[in-house]
Design brief:
It is found in: Cytoplasm. This protein is of the alpha+beta class. The protein has helices spanning 20-37, 76-83, 93-100, 102-111, 130-137, 160-170, 212-217, 231-248, 281-288, 293-302, and strands at 8-14, 40-46, 62-65, 87-88, 119-122, 141-145, 155-157, 177-181, 186-193, 196-197, 201-204, 223-226, 253-261, 264-271. 35% of the residues lie in helices and 24% in strands.
Length: 303
C-alpha cells in the first residue's frame, strides 16, 4: 500500500541482545515520529524471539523493527516476517544474516573487489596465539567479536597485556572472533537512504578506535563533520557502497563504515539497521542532506 496513513504499524523494541538499551532509544524516537505523523501503530517490547511468535500481527501491514543485534538483526526476524508476507524496514533475511557477521561481510566484500583490512578469524578466541597474530597483522591490531554491533567487545591490541584483556572481554560472547590489522586513517561513515547516498561524515574522537565507549559514553570527545574527501576517493567509496548494496540486496537504508588510508578506502562494517535516535550518525548525515527526523522515518517506511 502506498498511502502511509491507511496502514497499520507495529513497532518492535527491546530484544535480548547486548544492544537492548540502544533499541529502546531508537523505538522512543520512532514512536514520537509516528505520533507526529498521525500513524496508526502499536508498540511492543519483546525479549526472546519466542515472544515474536505470539505477537498480535493480524491486520498489521508493516512491522517497524527497532531491534538491534541478535535475532532482530541477524535475519531471524526478517525470515519470520517474510513467511507471513509482512513488510518491514531494513534489509531482508539474507543480507541481514551476512552483514551481522563481520567475517561473512569481509568475505563478500573481498570477493566483490571491495578492499578490507588484512584479517584472520578463528572459531574460538581462546585458541588465538598473540605472536602469530602479530606476525600476520603487525604489532597493533583490532579484536572483534563476529556478531556484535555498536562496536561492543571491540578492542585495540598493542601489547600482550592488551591481548589478554581483549580475550577476557571476548569470553562474554559466543562464536567466531575476527582479528584485523589496525589501519590508521580518516574514519568515515556513509549512509544510504531510499536509494540515495547521504553526505559522508568524518568521525573524530580521542580513543584508539571508535569503540562502544567512544560512541555512547564519551559524546563530548566525539564529533562529526562533513568529510572532505577527494573526488576520486568519493567515487571509489560510492562504487563500493553500491556494489555491496546490489550484491547483498540491501534496501531502505543502511550505514557503511570505512577507513581512508593514503587515498584508499577500506570497508570496516555494514550496518543494516543503523541506530535512529536523534544523535545517531545516520540521523546526523540525513540532517546534512536537508531532512528532518520525520522525513527520514517517512522515507524508510515508504521506500
Amino acid at each position: 500500500m502506498a498511502v502511509t496513513e491507511q496502514r497499520k504499524f507495529l513497532i518492535l523494541k527491546g530484544g535480548s541482545s547486548s544492544e537492548r538499551e540502544i533499541s529502546l532509544k531508537t523505538a522512543a524516537h520512532v514512536e514520537a515520529a509516528f505520533d507526529r505523523m498521525g500513524l496508526d501503530y502499536q508498540s511492543r517490547e519483546v525479549n526472546g524471539f519466542s515472544e515474536c511468535l505470539s505477537l498480535p500481527l493480524k491486520g498489521v501491514d508493516y512491522v517497524f523493527n527497532a531491534l538491534h543485534g541478535g535475532y532482530g538483526e541477524d535475519g531471524t526476524l526478517q525470515a519470520f516476517l517474510d513467511g507471513l508476507d509482512i513488510r518491514y524496514n531494513g534489509a531482508g533475511r539474507e543480507a541481514s544474516a551476512i552483514c551481522m557477521s563481520k567475517v561473512l561481510t569481509r568475505l563478500v566484500a573481498s570477493a566483490s573487489g571491495v578492499r578490507v583490512p588484512e584479517g584472520v578469524w578463528i572459531p574460538c578466541a581462546e585458541t588465538a596465539n598473540f605472536s602469530r597474530l602479530q606476525s600476520t597483522l603487525g604489532t597493533s591490531f583490532v579484536v572483534k567479536p563476529d556478531a556484535q554491533g555498536c562496536s561492543i567487545g571491540v578492542s585495540a591490541v598493542n601489547s600482550k597485556d592488551d591481548f589478554d584483556a581483549a580475550l577476557s572481554i571476548l569470553n562474554k560472547f559466543k562464536g567466531r572472533t575476527l582479528f584485523e590489522e589496525l589501519v590508521s586513517g580518516d574514519e568515515i561513515t556513509v549512509g544510504v537512504l531510499d536509494g540515495e547516498i547521504l553526505p559522508f561524515l568524518l568521525i573524530s574522537h580521542t580513543h584508539s578506535l571508535f569503540s562502544y565507549d567512544a560512541k555512547f559514553n564519551s559524546p563530548d570527545t566525539t564529533c562529526y563533520s562533513i568529510a572532505q574527501v577527494p573526488p576520486d576517493v568519493v567515487a571509489r567509496v560510492e562504487k563500493d557502497v553500491w556494489r555491496m548494496c546490489c550484491i547483498l540486496g540491501i534496501r531502505d537504508y543502511a550505514r557503511f563504515d570505512f577507513i581512508i588510508k593514503d587515498g584508499v578506502p577500506f570497508l570496516l562494517e555494514v550496518n543494516t539497521l543503523p541506530g535512529l535516535n536523534s544523535h545517531s550518525v545516520f540521523v546526523k548525515a540525513s540532517g546534512l542532506a536537508g531532512m528532518d527526523y520525520d522525513s527520514v522515518i517517512g522515507k524508510i517506511i515508504n521506500s
